[in-house]
Amino acid sequence: MMQSKLASLAVKGFLAFGLFLGALSFGFAASAQQATPSLPLLFDARERLARPDLSSLVRLRFLTSVDFPPFNFTDQNGKLSGFNVDLAREICSELEISDKCQIQAIPFADLKDALAASQGDAVIAGLAVTPELRRQFVFSRPYLMLPARFVRNLAVPLDGKTAAALSAHPVGVVRGTVHEAMLAAFFPAIKAQTFDTKDALLTALKDRKVDAAFADALQLSFWVSSPASAKCCALFDGPYLSEHFLGEGMTIMLRQKDSVLTAAIDHALATLSRNGRLQEIYLRYFPYGLY
Which residues are listed as membrane-spanning (predicted)? Predict the structure, then answer.
């Protein structure tokens, strides 16, 4: 079963959930990020997407998983929660079909087959868009991009506030990842030092064996804001986006025959993006920001 590139880039499992909760409980004062992080608009403010008639819709069944915090997970009370879960509910509210809306969690590996078998109507779980999946399904417009970021050790003086200031410093990256390839392509002047795992990379950064690191902004955002970092570090410059290296972003996957429902979801996403409700959900789960 194909695994999601997006899921592999983000924090997963119980360890990740602990880091997520730890970052939130650590307090906003520990964050070196801006006080009110903003979510970039992925929809043209001038574009108006028609709202299809869904009066004949019997129900809208969203499928998700529980192993991709903070996007979809089971909270401490056993309740299905997360950015994607709240977004699915907001989509239903915007389309005025909340009474027809259902959200079900199933194993991540079963999502594609469950949608193909009409056991659900839409998958909102961080599945990466691939040519193979596009031959079988359709996707909504992206509603969130997961950028790459630098993180620096605050004890290291830098001559500048952009990535150019890192050219004379060792910068760590995880070996064999898209971020290693992206770092080489975007910043050829930077001398990369590779590590086998993300944990080894962050430990080296904390211990000043490297002066900065380049990785997934989601991981870095929670790490620098959690007790695990001991306030050693902060995000630096960026964000950096690349469809070639990082994919098309977070989308909703639907069956090819459901063109009307796809258009309705695009309409809802565009509306939520423009009226600020998508930003509200973003701040709920990413109070320190990704961008």
Answer: none
Answer whether residue 25 shows pLDDT above 60: no
Q: Residue 86: is its pLDDT beyond 90?
A: yes
What does the pLDDT look like over 117-137, one tens digit per residue?
999 999 999 999 999 999 999
Q: Are strands 212-216 and 148-153 parallel, antiparallel or unpaired?
A: antiparallel
SS (H, E, C) the chain: CCCCHHHHHCCCHHHHHHHHHHHHHHCHHHCCCCCCCCCCCCCCCCCCCCCCCCCCCCCEEEEECCEECCCEEECCCCCEECHHHHHHHHHHHHCCCHHHEEEEECCHHHHHHHHHCCCCCEECCCCCCCHHHHCCEEECCCCECCCEEEEEECCCCCCCCCHHHHCCCCEEEECCCHHHHHHHHHCCCCCEEEECCHHHHHHHHHCCCCCEEEEEHHHHHHHHCCHHHCCCEEEEEEEECCHHHHCCCECCEEECCCHHHHHHHHHHHHHHHHHCHHHHHHHHHCCCCCC
**Cα gap 7→148, rounded to integer Å:** 14
Q: How far apart are CA 76 and CA 79, in angstroms?
A: 7
Q: What is the pLDDT of residues 143-161, one digit of tens each?
A: 999 999 999 999 999 999 9
pTM of the model: 0.84
Inter-axis angle of helices 217-224 and 13-26, nearest 10: 50
